[in-house]
């Protein structure tokens, strides 16, 4: 029902008269929570995902959207379970990092204003990132155990087999044990995250409706005006 209602709103927004202007556009929804075009634009501005050279705009937009959907799933799961309020995390530090990735406060401010956003939107994104990272560090990672048998098996399958195939002499297990442990730990953490997302998706219906070529194309950033008044209006020192 909720998904159908959001879809109706989306269609209305997309079919406004030609002389009208779409102020905002819903590109997806997690349960009753819409993910807006501006959310995807913000994600691009702060480089939420690494962009591969030569990657198409549609592909980048798709990855940005999936990342925002996953963050919203994680956040809603943490909030509704009450776990959010039992985690220790620093939103300010994550917000500062996002601002840095966006080119610094002055540059990012101009981009935000050009796209109808502000630093409050950055803080909302930072809250989701900080809480998800805290849950992974404080709840998921402590569950991870890597046994000696798993290390031995990985050594034979990954190191010995591949190096022998390449005609090279594999290093002794003791020399690469820590590297293998880190690799297996990372794999298990990723498995835990995927399981968490799967559970969250079972409890929150996800609906996607967007055009990749339009969903996250920021408006051009205006050049700063050479006046103290303009700088002050953007929240920066004159």
Question: Could you characterize what this model shows?
Answer:
The protein has a three-stranded antiparallel β-sheet with strand order 2-1-3, with helices on both faces. The chain has a domain at 2-142 and 198-218: Orthogonal Bundle (Triger factor/SurA peptide-binding fold). The chain is built from nine helices and three strands; from the N terminus they run H-E-E-H-H-H-H-H-H-H-E-H. With 238 residues, it is mostly helical. It has helices at residues 2-14, 37-45, 57-81, 91-101, 105-114, 119-140, 148-165, 173-203, 228-233, and strands at 26-30, 33-36, 206-208.
Number of helices: 9
The beta-strand count equals 3
Q: Nearest-angstrom radius of gyration?
A: 22 Å
| Overall average residue pLDDT | 84
Secondary-structure element pattern, one letter each:
HEEHHHHHHHEH
Task: Sum up the overall morphology in one term.
Answer: globular
Report strand order across the widest sheet: 2-1-3
Instruction: Estimate the helix proportion, in percent.
Output: 55-70%
Q: At the first level of CATH, what is the class of one domain?
A: Mainly Alpha
CATH topology of one domain, anyone?
Answer: Triger factor/SurA peptide-binding fold
Q: Please give the CATH architecture of one domain.
A: Orthogonal Bundle
Q: Helix- and strand-based class?
A: mainly alpha
Q: N-to-C terminal Cα separation, in Å?
A: 50 Å
Uncertain runs are: 8-22, 219-238
Largest sheet: 3 strands, antiparallel
- What fraction of the residues are assigned to beta strands by DSSP? 5-15%
